[in-house]
């Protein structure tokens, strides 16, 4: 157990009042009325109240020293995490030459009506090159992918056009593949199709098709923005949003950047093709492009001040927190006409007096230069060079941003801060995710002792969980389990932070982004024991649907009672804020009807619960599974997540 924190002065208000009254006979014997109504006693109590406030502040000194100690050993709060999303730029017209949207192009939300509502700004991470695509091949493949038929000549020269699916039986998995000369990564692609209505029987508003591209590891879906062809059945345009990953692959012994339309097994009530559609011609054009962006504002060169030649100097930038530096974002020292670029390090432990190094605190934006340290043998050593007296300290540029404020909704980033030639619009078709506020001092105080106690090794399950939590502020929970192969491998189940009302949480919100997965894997790889394989993944989220019949108290609006009951269920059955302790549903924690009944009975406005039923729920197909249960059990790699609850109020 931790050592108890001593109070420097444990006297209370009443102790001070009693002590002052005991001194009255000694210093003022003529004062004999000690009742609370006496003006002198009122002054004593006022003095005691003021003294108690001073003692309270005095007793905070150990806490202040504790924080200073954490600073000394290098335990600092995590800076905020940055929200990211994909921005789609739309061209003003179909062009025959390349259009470049440069990196760091800034896009923002509209400014709200209130004065406190500031626009949220996102910056693109890379150059977006939108060039005219070149179609150079066409194939049809069967379900197994072992048989490919070249239909390129049929598509160009045959008046009847090319069959989209080679199998006579139209087996799900058959594909119509289009090969391109260059990568379509991130492109908004328009396919202008001439077709005849031979693929009859299909519902033109929802054909059993999915468009996919190869990303180097597998086929991933491309978004369909619009389709006026009725599923390749008539002349029209298909506008596709190609993912930001697109790699070449060989189809039928021909290597190209392939885009394919794959036939799906029809869902319940969905009609399928009775015959393969035929396409007579296809023209391709680029309507825009998609690029990754992050919640950041690019700030250009800034002068921080002048050096006075002393060790341990520090200078602060005007905006903070500062995002992790990129190439070209650095500190420069200017002496007359001479400009030198210094190197950023994590600390000065490995720096000598000639090393031009500095430490840049991302959370506070403060740039530190090397200190002079006196060692036990009396020697004094300078860690890191000192800018000469009078030298000007500058930063070439940096980016400011981060925090949950950047988790904006879909279709909210619509304003370009600067014009881009031939671009007439921009939008984020998906919400931004990953923004987390900086770690608070209280959270850092809890994490500090754990870090000092176990160091930076990863041996036990607790070590892996702690390092996973420390790898990124985007990680909310981590659970380490054996991978089950009997070879010492471990598996990390990660639950990321999901912001917003828990009623709006969906299973896709709990997916781990590629950036977060890379961050966690890199951190664990540095500290794992040699020979230990580490797998990083997500828990299996078991959907739960509650059906309850409750009776409300007299005079309570049924709609309000129903909403309160549903909110309570959504919060309780949740991976982040659910469970008995409100810190997330526990791993291995089963759910039973008795607990749900107690939860609903505690909701304001509910008089009694007549009946409660539990259903397992498939979060992907959005339907209940099986019959009602009294207990739903979890395995070691699962967590509960609320689905659609139904509360009937009488």
What does this structure look like?
The protein is α+β, with helices and mostly antiparallel strands and 650 residues long. It folds into 5 domains: 13-59; 135-286, Jelly Rolls, CATH 2.60.120; 299-401, no CATH class; 456-537, GMP Synthetase, Chain A, domain 3, CATH 3.30.300; 540-649, no CATH class. Helix content is 18%, strand content 34%. The strands form 9 sheets. Strands 1, 3, 4, 8, 10, 13, 14, 17, 28 and 29 form a 10-stranded antiparallel sheet that branches. Strands 6, 7, 9, 11, 12, 15 and 16 form a 7-stranded antiparallel sheet that branches. Strand 30 (475-482) and strand 31 (490-496) form a beta hairpin. It starts with 12 loop residues before the first helix and ends with a strand. The model has no long low-confidence stretch (mean pLDDT 84).
